[in-house]
Amino acid sequence: MNGLDSRRLRGACPGLNAVKSQYVLITDNGGERTSNVTDARIMKAVYEIEINGYVTIERCMPVRIVREAECFAVTFYDDSRVAVYFRVGKTVLRMVQSGFSIDAAVDIMCDFFKSAELPDMTFWTCEELSPASQKREPSLSVDGEDFRYFGSADVVAALENIIEGKSVWMLYDFTCEDGGYINIRRCGSDPVQAEYEVEYVRWIEPIPVGYRVVTSDAGKLRSWLWDLVDSCKFPDLTHEWESFDVTDYFRRLTFRFLNEDDKTDSNER
Question: Model pTM greater than 0.70?
């Protein structure tokens, strides 16, 4: 995959814990990496794009956009393309557009470096870059914390913590039947009248499907999640579920940058 080393798709960089906002500048067709990043270095690398092949600004602590989506890099290629890289759950996506001048590319990359600002990507192309051969495994996140090891009981316990008000949200990625995820989020602070937003996506081919529902029925939540975890049985899509265009949804994630209540400030991570 040109533009980023596939071994670094999760945006991991040396010194991550020491410098939260550290950036790495990647040049020379991926052969050179430096954390000594300045506007002047970015400008020099971009103006030497014919030599460098591509120039990437990679953020060691990715910028949380909304819930499970985060942006971790911007790349300018010698064929005038700009790509913005995202991770949504276990999936790596990039938004791509061509026809950029060197000056425009410098502005985009310096804005990302100085203030984590992203360009307007209204008409850009969305591409999935996760290697098809990559072994997929289930994953579980609760309030932004990933479980390194977990079983069915942990997934169910995560839901119980949400119902009891001990946690706010959970994201469970499953791999059966082409895979997908279920995201459950608690709304409000009233333990008696709590509502739960549920988002359910399946990565089926050729077009993935997504559904959302808001419910106050904790029993339904338990049934949906347990059936999914225990026997890969999916929720019955009754009239209460609202379908949404998954592709369009992930495109729009980029346009909501810095405009959502659930965005995590990068200085707090």
Answer: no
| Angle, in degrees to the nearest 10, between helices 218-231 and 152-163 | 170
pLDDT digits (tens, 9 = 90+) for 38-69: 999 999 999 999 999 999 999 877 777 665 67
Residue with tokens 């120039």: 55
Q: Which residue has the tokens 């819930």?
A: 67
